[in-house]
Amino acid sequence: MRFVPTTLRPLLLVLAAALFSFTVLQPTPAERTKAYYHQHLQALHAALTQLRAAVYEAELPVLQSRYAACRREYKPLEFAVEYYYPFVAQRLNGAALPESEPSEPEEPLLPTGFQVLEEYVYGAGADRATRDLMRQQADNLLFQVRYLQQREPSLTFTDAEVFDALRLNLYRLAAKGLSGFDSPAAQQAVPEAAVTLDATADVTALFDAPPALARELRRGAAYLRRPGVSFTAFDRAAFLTRHYNPILAELHRGQQQRGIGFVAARRAVRPAAVSFLAADAFDATFFAPADALPSTPQVLALGRALFAEPALSGAAGRSCASCHRPDQAYADGLRVNRSLQPGADLARNTPSLLGAALQPEQFYDGRVRFLEDQVHAVITNPAEMGGRLDAVSAALRRQKPYARLFAQAFPAEATPLTEPNIRRALAAYVRSLTGLNTRVDQFLRGDTAVLSAQEVRGFNLFMGQAQCGTCHYLPLFSGVVPPLYDKVESEVLGVPATADTLHPALDTDPGRYRLHRIPHQQFAFKTPTVRNAARTAPYMHNGAFQTLEEVVDFYNRGGGQGLGLAVPTQTLAPDRLGLSKAEKQALLAFLQALND
Predict the structure, then answer these.
(1) Rounded to the nearest 10 degrees, how much is the dihedral formed by the CA atoms of 443, 445, 448, 452?
(2) Please, are residues 511 and 522 in contact by the beta-carbon 8 Å criterion?
(3) Fold classification of 448-592 (topology level)
(4) Is the pLDDT of residue 571 over 50?
């Protein structure tokens, strides 16, 4: 045993105590993340205070500079605010559109926050009335920030939640940020994306992130900050494949290497997925009810048989496949199909069922949530199929194959051929019609040889100048809202009654307004996916346009308002996009590449 002089023992005890104290008091990565959050929240408060003070005195360029400074301070906070305080995030950075609860249709929640303020700061004028509106929005933003400051003492980060929040924020960056969704007037999507990557690097460094992750984040931010990069010219395809995918892969690997688990939340995108672009990222059961059937071969065989069964409509002889034809991408190729009512047509175009499982609402007006309810609504609708499920059950019992098919699909049930099981089996079959493996998907996963240069240009236009990606969100290319994909947006486009754009008349279908009589939802319809759109003509809820060329021209001209129609609630920007003939052709080529 080594002898320690008596005179040194007190010193060693002090050193040991100091070392122990240092180890115990050293803040954890989650605690350092909270300190980072506090620092940027204080900085955002200061930046907004400076902007508010300058509203009445400063010239527009100065206000724009101060507005940009506020945005730069918000972006490092975005991952946490969106994760822990989503309602506050909506009030800070939501779309400049009103929201309403069905229970209070006449009491809309007016938009507020950065996007509303941006319209004033980057608008054409700065008169006294506009300055008053700027001041009002600055006050609104400060109110939300003060609320976040008040909630700080009770906010607790965990390691798994921090990585989850960062990952979701990167999904938000790709699906909404790069399209210009939250910077429509200033068009600062690209530099703001660089700030988001910087913030991701800062936070992951608090967890001693692997050098590979730090390197990819640094490279991605440098790519976004290259000289001469503009919103319209930015190569989103190259960024996503060369930088974004490696960042997500290294974030996933770094979390595993640090022994940090994935949250147990049930979401549309699996929390443990490497990327929301991965082939297995989406979980269709998230959109299904608790009693939804699993997609076993026996269940799908039954559902497939029922899908083609004319007995579902009784004497009318119409099956699901009569209107959702597999050879027409599960649409029907008609403007609208015939009603079973004498001398009438159905009110709306038949949508494709491909990808219907990845939607939180069904029908153009979103009137039901689950596919099981959609099946019931269609079968029992006297105009569409005119069936009665009790009579359908009796008719199927008289057909020998169905006794066997139901028994195989429901082996544990004594009486498997029931009305609920008919709905469940059909819904399970429709739920199986989900494939996310187009050439565009393969490209975004790294196989960059599968798209032509024209198709890549079309993707960049879709996600940028043409503004398609601000409503048809990546990677579902529908109105299902990222990064949680738990709700779907409806838009007012001002669709004309016919393709005659020289003498246009607004289509009179009230759309979602019919459900709850919410004024700003007059003529609003769910934003569908554009996957397989090249195979599902004609287009829009009324089948007004026969070709994708007509659809692109409609958007290029600013929708109904751009055609000169009175559409006061239009959510589509009425400004002309100014797409050239070559740009339109590239956009059409990209849409062709979305065929599954």
Answers:
(1) 10
(2) yes
(3) Cytochrome Bc1 Complex; Chain D, domain 2 (1.10.760)
(4) yes
